[in-house]
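Priority: low. Protein: ShKT domain-containing protein. Input follows.
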Amino acid sequence: MKIILLCLISACLAQAAHSICSYSTLTQDDRDSITNAHNNYRSILAKGQANLPNGQFAPPAANMYKVSYDCDLENIAQNYAEKCVFQHSSAGERDGAGENLFMSTGNIGNAAALQQSADAWWGELEQYGIAGFASNDTTFQSNMSSVGHFTQMAWANSTKIGCGVQWCPNNPMTIVVCNYKDAGNYINSPIYQVGNACASDSECTSVPQSTCDTSAGLCSSNYVPPCADNSPAYACNQWQAAGYCANTSPYYPYVAQQECRKTCASC
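Result:
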């Protein structure tokens, strides 16, 4: 009998191009497959067609962006997958990236493993549901661990993904590791913005220079923000001295990824 297990955690990393995706055995078709799986599911959610257990649907999403593939994230994911340990990596190992894990006891190959992982992670929504969705509340809460893989896939601010796959014959299992930037699943933060799927470029407002894929109801942008601090220098220097720039700090998402990107050397 084949056994499938899942696991997840939160955190964040930097962008890279397909051209340096040279570490793992994944093919470009594999990378496109897992990227498309995420975007297909995000499109279903944006259009208000994501199933809940009671036959109803999750609230539709405005400002939902496509994910794109990131080779730095892939390299980290593949390095960890090759350890053949089905437990989460440390925050330092993944430089603060979000992390979803999947395991099957069969040697099912990369393509099947990637598709099954995406289907299993997203399937948590229909299997378990989210109570707040009935009132259009998409706030992530500490009691949502049963749907944590889904929420990471649906997290609106997670727009980069990179994955690794490894067959582990000594402890027979195929492991999938997917890392996300920016990390999701922060308590009391919104999973996504409730609203209508985009129908024009003007409705994609989260990132400058955005466009709307009207057929998918998803936004996209190639905009790269300047490497700068949003908070005053004295504040960033104090936070850096206090250790808030470290990816193990609970303040890392706010300080290093948002307010003090230049001081924390996170851009």
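Residues 28-46 form the longest helix (19 residues). The chain has two domains: 4-197, 226-267.
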